[in-house]
Each structure stands twice: as structure tokens, then as C-alpha cells.
Target: Acid beta-fructofuranosidase
Amino acid sequence: MTLLSTIWLLPLFTFIYLHGVLPIEATHHVYRNLESLSSDEYSTNQPYRTGYHFQPPKNWINDPNGPLIYKGVYHLFYQYNPKGAQWGNIVWAHSISTDLVNWTPLDPAIFPSQPSDINGCWSGSTTILHGNKPAILYTGINKLNHQVQNLAYPKNVSDPFLREWIKSPENPVMEPTTENKINSSSFRDPTTGWLGKDGKWRVLIGSKRRTTGIAILYKSKDFVNWDKSKHPLHSAKGTGMWECPDFFPVLKNGINGVDTSLNDNSVRHVLKVSLDDHKHDYYLIGSYEEEKDRFVPDKGFEEVEIEYVFRYDYGKYYASKTFFDYEKNRRVLLGWANESSSVDDDIKKGWSGIHAIPRAIWLHKSGKQLVQWPVVEIEKLRVNHVNWPTKLLRGDELLQINGVTASQADVEISFEVNENDIGEAEVLEKWTDPQILCSQKGTSVKSGLGPFGLLAFASKGLQEFTSVFFRIFKFQNKNLVLFCSDQSRSSLNKHNDLTSYGTFLDVDVLHEKLSLRTLIDHSVVESFGGEGKACITARVYPTLAINDKAFIYAFNNGTTDIKITSLSAWSMKKAQLNGKL
Model:
């Protein structure tokens, strides 16, 4: 099959308050009486529900909150609406796992019950205190609809499942006042605490002052009584509200993770903020000057344009949170992938929001950026391995990847550009925002080198497909790799968000592997380019390419041949996302 005869001639589309300490009531069961869906119902009635990306049986979810490992059990708390598929009525739902793949839901950990959280229990973090005692700091919306910070502890620290939590009688432990001049509507999402050399705990709270984003720093000797620092850990003009901040060390050398409190010559520090005005997660790498309690980035928001600051993910990915997995010596990243479907469609299907696959995260050997890769446990879902020998992917060629379940798959492919062909790269006259460039030069636009990559969720006649591809430019006498996820043809339902995403990828195409790994899961295309240097998560809802009507292809729409040096693909078994104890 040739591309010209298929893709390129088609049109481009384009509660009750109790005074004092309050345990969680055992009768409050978010997951009880929910409809269980059989395999047939999943495939027929719910074609967009995921097979191995985390989501509850129904209703709205958003931010992952306070992930941790405790007594060998992984805990995932998350923002959840038990009453519907739109945001509202937010509680901290709670699921547990032994492998970050299969999950069992428990009763909600935290829900509105005190004056300090009666109008909502928003995002926050967990910290392991002295004596291996977990604590949760979270944002509550009080009776005045002000954002305040609250504290909770496990009722029984010997319970590895941490099924019940007790709220502190001291709540709120941090709040806006006229003295501290904090905006009561922009004061949320406390971080995991870290212990300074002075023996004091420190946490950050996201905030803003006018258009300046701020990471407010608080200190405490006992994790109960908190003092606001005179200056923020970091701030940046013109960035707007900083939601869900995260602050953690990464080793200068190696892929292992380290404890959040470590600060010595072996580490750099990462400050991640979720920018409310942009709906993306951005991160800065720099140094933490503990004596001054300041973070000094190598390059800050104010030194470069916002589109050139690194992101965790260039697609649908927000409100992320990391934790240190001390049992496997790694730092694990979790994030929310919101829907691209309309609100009406979300209500009809009865759910909204998923979480991306947990990712190991570390500092690249260059020291310039982070690397992310799906946790290795996800690979135990792989079955039906398909392996290709080296193949030449000619210009205008489309090769179907047979033998795997195309709607629930894991595909790894590597490309090689012949050194003699690098002169065929299109010249980029001026620097352009890569996301705009991916929209202007999508799958159907030919060039000398690219686009080439994968078509996921492709229908039989290619009326629908989601493409993930590379395109190589020559810019200022250097080779420049564009990495794109093109949703413009992902669905015939034009009520969906069909935005294309992309970034430039720091890869030397003549000396490094140009690799692509893509996790495909019914309504998710989660891609890792350049061995995890850049990630793009897309949410798509085909009307034709559903279940066994979906296909996967390797493609090249450039005029120059590209070599596939390796291709491995697997069907993915269904994870147990709503198991039972």
C-alpha cells in the first residue's frame, strides 16, 4: 500500500463537622455500588476506556495526590468526584498496588468534614516523618471559600493499606492572613516536605501575586506549627499561578532516585510547576542554596521564552507529582491526562480523566534535562511479541505492523538516517514554536527527511489515524529534529480537541538512536522520543478505528528512504485497575 493512494489524497481534518480530631467514617464508600463492566461491555459500550492506564470505574478524576510506598505497598491518592463526570465535590480517593500496574480501590482517604475543608479537599502531598510515620498536607476550601492547608495522619500506622486517616485538631496549619498578604484564592497544593540541616521541615505552597508565580516556603520543627519564610524559594514574573509545585533532588550521575531531603554535591535540584495559564507542567534544573533557602535555576523562566522551558510532557499531561521509591531506588512520576472529548460526551460515557503510566525520572548525563521512561513493571503486560529485522522504509511507504492488538499495544521502533542523505533535510529559515510547526507541517506535508514514524488507531481506509513522527530540519547549519503527535485526523467526531503537539528533540541524528516508544490504549497515545528525552501524551476518540477495527503502521512520507534498525511490538494484557483485597 502506498501513502499517496491513501493518506495524502484524503482531506486534512485538519458533611458533618465534628469538633477536634476527626477520623474518616467507615461508611463513606466512594466505590460501593458502582457498575462493574464485563469485558464485552468494555469493548462494545466503552471503546475509549483504558486497558492499562489508571482510571476508576466511572466519574471525574484529576490530579494524582501524595503518592508513596509504605510497608511494601504503593499508594495513589487522587482528586475524584464521586457524584459525576465533571469537576466538583472533590475528595481524596485512594487506591493501592504492589506493582504500580494493578490497583485496588479503598475508601476515600480524605473528604470534606471540617470548617477548614468543608467546601473541598484539593491537592497535596505525603511526607514520611520521623519514625516512619506518613503525614498528608492538603489544601482545603474553608467556609469562606479561602484556600488553607490542612494536616492528616493515618489512624493506624501498622496498617500497610493506610485505610483510615485522622485530621489534625490544629487545622488549618497554614492560612492566608492580612499580615502575610497571601491571596486567599491562590494558595494551594503543598509539596512533600524535606528536612533541612537545621532540623526543620520545609514545604512549598503554590501561589501568585498579580502575574508573578510564587513558590511560598514554610518551615516547621514539628510539621504542625508552620512559619512562612520571608522570601519565596523561587518566583518568576509573567508566569501566573503556580499550581502543584514539586521540588526534589536528582543525582548528577546515574539513573537512581534519592531521598527528597538529600542536598549535597552529588545532586542537582528540580523545581516543577504546573502553570495554570498554560495547562502544562514545566521544570527548571538548578541548585538549592540551603543556607539562603533559595533555588537558583541554570536558566529561569525570565531568561528564556516560556515555550523553550522544558516540560515533562508536550501533550495532555498536568498536575504531576513525584515520589521517592526507596525500595527500588528510583524517583517515580505520576500525572493526569485529561480528556480531549466534549463535556457532553464525557457525561454520556460517564467518566472523565485518566492517569498516564507511572514513569521513572532522572537527570540526563548532559545535565541539561530530565529523562522519563515507563516503569519497568508495565512490561509484564506484554504478550505476542512481534520483532522486525532491519527494514528500509522507502519514501511514501506504509508498512502494517501485524500480530498485535492495535488498540492496546506497546511499540518500540528505532530509525536511522543515512549520513549521505542528511543534506536532504528541509531548511528552517527562522525559529518557530515547535507545536505550531507540527500543526503547519503535519503528517501529510512532505519534506526531504520526514515525516516518518507510526500511525496509531488507523482505520481501514485511513479516514482516521493518529500519527507520531519525526521530521528533520537544517537550522543554522545544524540538524534539528522535530517530534510531533498529530491528532488532526484522529477522529471523524469534530467535537473533540484535535490539537497537534510537538517539541524539538535534542538528538544527534548521525550518532544517536532516533527512537520512539508508543503506548497505545483505546483513547491514549503516550509517546517517548529519543529514549525518553521528550514525551507527548495524546487523548483520541476514533469513530472507525475502534478495538479490532484499529491498525498500526510504520510510515515514511518523506522523499528520502529511512532505515528501521529495530522494531518490537507487543499486545498489552489488561491491567486490574479496580481489583479487590
